[in-house]
């Protein structure tokens, strides 16, 4: 079903689909003042997901995070209106691999921006819980924004039954076991992305990447330590370490 052409919320006209996920579809829209917007539409039975994302993301205000501006309905479907994050999803943006060899500076800027956004998110007591390429939109120069907060919530939040948040290839060991997740679990996902940038491929389960002479491999290994308690939970430290090891001044 297409919603293109509809006017929703406070005068946002839906133009075209720009993204699809397992739980939602995202439209490019334009508001009454001519500002571009992203409108995320959920199936009717997932109203709780929309409410949860609005609750946790509507107060976020950081240049490296997409913002949720309001909640609305589209033909009975729950929907969120937010700022538009420009660019391509991370793995599409970095087609030539390994990214650290072919586009080292832009790629590391992307990770620095993700860590910057996570540092802010974590400072507010929240974790993202789904760090993966599809949730990182990257511009030509490497500037990036973290999007999609429908799995986000308070750090170490517990549920009545184990909840396995995230996407398998980027999921921390504790996430795979359904344990409560803290900032160190988000940093595990960043570590997986850094390893992909160094080696040009994702690590297979229980089959670690071979050692690399790249000085950033040290940080990759630190961020992907299987033991949750031994892994860093400090995104600001990880950003500074990334830049130090790379010899970059951002």
Q: Any overview of this molecule?
A:
This protein is of the alpha+beta class and 250 residues long. The protein has two domains: 7-83, Phosphorylase Kinase, domain 1, CATH 3.30.200; 88-246, Transferase(Phosphotransferase) domain 1 (Transferase(Phosphotransferase), domain 1, Orthogonal Bundle), CATH 1.10.510. Helix content is 32%, strand content 20%. The chain is built from eight helices and eleven strands. It has helices at residues 47-57, 90-93, 99-102, 104-123, 173-176, 183-199, 217-223, 235-246; strands spanning 7-8, 12-20, 25-30, 36-41, 68-74, 77-83, 88-89, 126-127, 136-138, 144-146, 153-154. A six-stranded antiparallel beta sheet has the order 1-2-3-4-6-5, covered by helices on one side. Helix 4 runs antiparallel to helix 6, helix 4 runs antiparallel to helix 8 (235-246) and helix 6 (183-199) runs antiparallel to helix 7 (217-223). The longest helix has 20 residues, at 104-123. The radius of gyration is 18 Å and the shape is globular. The termini are far apart. Its EC number is 2.7.11.1. It is an enzyme of class 2 (transferase). Residues 12-250 form the Protein kinase domain. One of its GO terms (molecular function) is protein serine/threonine kinase activity. This is Serine/threonine-protein kinase.
């Amino acid at each position: 079903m297409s919603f293109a052409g509809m006017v929703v919320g406070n005068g946002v006209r839906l133009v075209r689909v720009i993204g699809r996920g397992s739980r939602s579809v995202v439209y490019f829209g334009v508001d009454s003042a001519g500002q571009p917007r992203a409108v995320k539409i959920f199936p009717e039975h997932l109203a709780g997901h929309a409410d949860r994302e609005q609750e946790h993301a509507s107060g976020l205000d950081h240049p490296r995070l997409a913002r949720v501006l309001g909640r609305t309905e589209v033909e009975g479907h729950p929907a969120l209106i937010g700022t538009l994050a420009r660019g391509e999803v991370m793995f599409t943006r970095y087609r030539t691999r390994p990214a650290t060899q072919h586009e080292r500076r832009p790629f590391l800027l992307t990770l620095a921006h993700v860590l910057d956004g996570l540092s802010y998110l974590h400072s507010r007591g929240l974790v993202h819980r789904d760090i993966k390429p599809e949730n990182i939109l990257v511009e030509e120069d490497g500037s990036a924004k973290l999007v999609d907060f429908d799995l986000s919530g308070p750090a170490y939040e517990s549920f009545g039954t184990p909840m396995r948040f995230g996407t398998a290839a980027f999921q921390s060991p504790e996430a795979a076991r359904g344990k409560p997740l803290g900032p160190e679990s988000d940093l595990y996902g960043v570590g997986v992305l850094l390893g992909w940038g160094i080696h040009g491929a994702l690590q297979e389960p229980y089959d670690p990447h071979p050692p690399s002479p790249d000085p950033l491999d040290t940080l990759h290994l630190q961020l992907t330590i299987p033991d949750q308690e031994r892994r860093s939970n400090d995104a600001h430290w990880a950003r500074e370490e990334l830049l130090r090891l790379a010899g970059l001044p951002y």
